[in-house]
Amino acid sequence: MRDDFPTQLTFDEAQAIVDATAAEDRLPAERLAIARTQGRILAQEVVAPIPQPPFDNSAMDGYAIRHADVAEGGTTLQLAGEQFAGRALDLRVEPGQCIRITTGAPMPAGADTVVVREVVRVEGDRIAIPAGIRAQANVRRAGEDVRIGDCVLSPGQVLTPARVATTASLGIDQLTVSARPTVAVFTTGDELIPPGIPLEPGQIHDSNRELLMGLLRADGLEPTAWPTLPDDPVRIASMLRDAASSFDVVITCGAVSAGEKDHIPALLDTHGRIHFWKVRMKPGMPVLFGDLGTARFLGLPGNPVSVFATYATLGRRLLDGLQGRTEPRRAFRARLAAPIDKAHARREFVRGRLEATEDGTLRAHPDAATGSHRLHAAAMADALIVVPEGPRQLSIGDVVDVLPY
Ligand SMILES: Nc1nc2c(c(=O)[nH]1)N[C@H]1C(S)=C(S)[C@@H](COP(=O)(O)OP(=O)(O)OC[C@H]3O[C@@H](n4cnc5c(N)ncnc54)[C@H](O)[C@@H]3O)O[C@H]1N2
Ligand code: MOO
Known about the structure:
This is Molybdopterin molybdenumtransferase. The chain is of the alpha/beta class. The chain folds into four domains: 7-27 and 180-322, Molybdenum Cofactor Biosythetic Enzyme, Chain A (3-Layer(aba) Sandwich), CATH 3.40.980.10; 31-52 and 146-178, Molybdopterin biosynthesis moea protein, domain 2, CATH 3.90.105.10; 57-140, Molybdopterin biosynthesis moea protein, domain 3 (Molybdopterin biosynthesis moeA protein, domain 3, Beta Complex); 332-404, Beta-clip, CATH 2.40.340.10. It has helices spanning 11-24, 161-169, 208-218, 233-244, 264-271, 304-322, 375-380; strands at 7-9, 29-33, 46-47, 57-58, 62-65, 75-83, 97-101, 113-116, 121-123, 126-129, 139-140, 151-153, 174-178, 183-187, 192-193, 204-205, 224-225, 249-253, 272-279, 281-282, 288-292, 295-300, 332-336, 340-342, 347-356, 362-366, 383-387, 392-394, 399-404. β21 (288-292) and β22 form a beta hairpin. The longest helix has 19 residues, at 304-322. Molybdate ion binds next to loops.
């Protein structure tokens, strides 16, 4: 096996390679009905073809009036008509008149203020308005939220429900979004037995399959799980090359460290290209990244918590980049609730629990269970606490980056 690929990278160097590779391999865009774009990455600019609100309208159920009529104090106005939400009736409020109006109904010409119905007294078609009404009250102005021609969304942003709804409010029914990467997921190892089948001595149940499939699904993808790879280099090569010919991304877990059965790095070296192998991070140090055929190849280390940490950092970053996501994932900082003493030089992602305190700060409680086989401990935690490179003695109250999960 060659040794001219980058290895023992810092986390930032590895992340930069992932970013650069993803940028070169941007997935194509597709045009979809907005109902199918939730969670997608936008691949166009969205410019408002109409204002929002499209017309001046009432914010409350009540009476549209001319404020000049009540400027001197309370008065009684003549009810001149009704304007409900739906169709604009071309009504006009003359001096001394008012029009009954509902929330969302267009403001009749002449009116500039809405008085809520709870404060008026109705006497037939005479409406008694109290004193103290504020001019322009309860009117929502056309274009107040979005003006015509505003750029409301940009390429690289995530289509959240509120953003998709915004495009709907502007009358846009289709959007150009990045294609979703297709992902093939493999677990590896002769020791793996699916849950539901009793273990023989030396065997363990395959948990990484559920972990990876779940992480990918939670990120909005529809991954495909392949049969578990045996510890046999010929069969591994044929199965992985098969997958690489029909998926955008192939993710394996296991068989990337130094053992006799860790065939995957050599295989990628022979049949594809290694962008890097081994990153100075913990857990996840033996992580492997490259190309196989036309697919991006991510070889995650087999320990369950290593799978978790490498997916949450580098894997997700790759998938975001392939979709052209430019909007960063939200960053959080917290104060440590217990010290962390780190002797090694790698960046560490310590599992922990976040607590929202009374004084408005986030506190991170690092988990004492640091072994990368401690899946249950990771499952009971809810964040990765980032401990930077180098030996570190972090004290209670120190500020750390955290990645909630
Ligand atoms: N001599 C060295 N040994 C190890 C090194 C090293 O650098 N030199 N690195 C260690 C680190 S760090 C990690 S992480 C692991 C990664 O090993 P592999 O990626 O080769 O993974 P495996 O050996 O196949 O498995 C590791 C561990 O995880 C369990 N496993 C694997 N797949 C699954 C699964 N689908 N579900 C549940 N558990 C799984 C497997 O049984 C092993 O216990 O290597 C260290 N060793
Ligand atoms: O880096 Mo390994 O991923 O510590 O367990």
